[in-house]
Amino acid sequence: MQVTLQKLTTLLDRHDTADTACDRLLEQLSTLIKGPNGCELASSLGRSDVAVLGRYGFDDARPERRHLALRCLHNAMVQAPPVTEMFVNGGLPGRAVELMTVCRLPSEQLVLELDSLTVTPQSTNADDQFFAARLLIRCSADPAAGFLPDFEHGVLAETINAATALHASTGEIEPTVACTAHLRLILVLAAKYEAQAHHLLPSMSPILQMFERAPIRNPPLEPPMSLLIDCLAALVSHNGPIATSEMPWPPFNEDKLVNVLSLAIQAYPPEVLETRITPLASLLFKISQSGPAETKERLRAHLLPSDQDRTQVLGRGDSLPHRLVSISTETVSPELKKVMAHLFLELSDGDPKRLIHNVGFGCGVGLLHSISTPAPPDDSDTGQSTEGTGEINPVTGQRRDMETQTSLAEMTDEQKEREAERLFVLFERLRATGVLNVENPVGAALRSGRVE
C-alpha cells in the first residue's frame, strides 16, 4: 500500500494528475483498505498519506477521482480511528464543509431561489454531498473535531440548512442515499451540540416536506421514516413554538405520526418496540407542548381514551389509547416511561389529577412517579364522568355501568365468622414465626367492638 501512496504522491508533485494511473492506484488502494487486512493497512497511514488523499478528494476537478479518494479516506477512518484524528488535525473537516456547500445565500433566500429555479448551486453533485456528510459524521466522534466555533460564527449550519433545502426540492418520494447521509449528519450534530441545535431549525421545514412524501413501509419505523422522525425529534424545541409565520406547522402531520405509532405497536415485538417508539413518542410530546392548539386537540383525540374505550378496563383493549396505557404500565424502559408520562401529562393540561382520570389510577400514579411528580390525594372526584356518559372507576378507568357484575352470593354471617377465624389464626402464626410484627387486625377489631 505504501508503494501505491508513493506513486500517488509522485503524480501530484509532477502535476501529472491527468494520467489515468491515478484512478487505477486509488481503486487499488480502496480495495486494499476494504480487504481482510484493511485495519492493519489503515493503521499504517501517516499524516502525509492522509494529506495526499485529501488533495485528491477535495482539489481534483474530476468527480469520479474525488469520490475514489474520499471513499478511501472514509474507509480508512472506519478501520483505524487514528486516521480520523489525522484528518481533523490536518484541517480537512473544513474542506468537507466546503464540498457540501451548495450556495452562499442565506437559507431563507436559498429556499425561495430554489423554488423559482434561479439559483446555480456551487456543488449539486449527490456523491459530493454523500461523502462530505459521511466524513463529517466520522469527524464528530473525534473530541478534537470541535464544530462549536463553526456553529456560532462559521457557515456550518447555513451550509447544512441550504443542503437540506436542496435535497427536499428534488421532489423524491423517498430520500436519496446522499440525503440519508445528510440527515444522519443533522441528527449527530443536533445530539452532540444540543445548545447550538437551534441553528439547524431552518432544516425542519424541508425535513417535514420529505416526511409528508415518504411512504409508510412495513415495519414502519425503519429508515428513511425512522431517520426523518429522529431528526424532527432532535430539532423540535420544547422551549419555544414549533410553528411561526415564517415556518407554519403543516396541517395533519400529527395524523401521519400517530398512524406510524399505531402501526409500529402492531409490527414490532415487545423486546424491540420500546427503543423504536421512544423518539416518536418524544416528538409527539414536543409537538403537543409547542405546536398549535388545534394540533394538541387532534393529539388528544388520537391518544387519550374515548368514551367507547372506557367500555373496557383501560389497557386491555386493542385501540391505540388502550395499547398506550398498556405499554406505559408494563414498560421496563425508564426513558420511554418518562416520555409517556410527559406526553400524557401535557395532554392533560399539566394536571396530575386529570392524567389519572385519563389513563386510570395504576398507570397514572406509575407515570407520575417516573417523573418525580406527586400523585394527587385520592378523592371521589377522580371518578368523574367522561363526555357526560356516567361515572368512571378511578382505578381501572372503566365506566361503572360497563363493569362486570359479580355473580357470587352474599356471604352469610356464619361464613364471615369462619373467614375471620382463619385470618386471626394466620396472623398469629405469622407473628409467632417473626414474619410479621404488626397487630393482628382481627384481634384489634374484636377489642374495638367492631366484631361481635
TrEMBL record:
Keywords: Chaperone, Guanine-nucleotide releasing factor
Region of interest: Disordered: 372-415
One Gene Ontology biological process: G protein-coupled receptor signaling pathway
InterPro entries: Gua_nucleotide_exch_fac_Ric8
Domain of life per record: Eukaryota
Pfam families named in the record: Ric8
GO cellular component, as recorded: cytoplasm
GO-annotated molecular function: G-protein alpha-subunit binding; guanyl-nucleotide exchange factor activity
Family, as annotated: Belongs to the synembryn family.
Protein name: Guanine nucleotide exchange factor
Organism classification: Eukaryota, Fungi, Dikarya, Ascomycota, Pezizomycotina
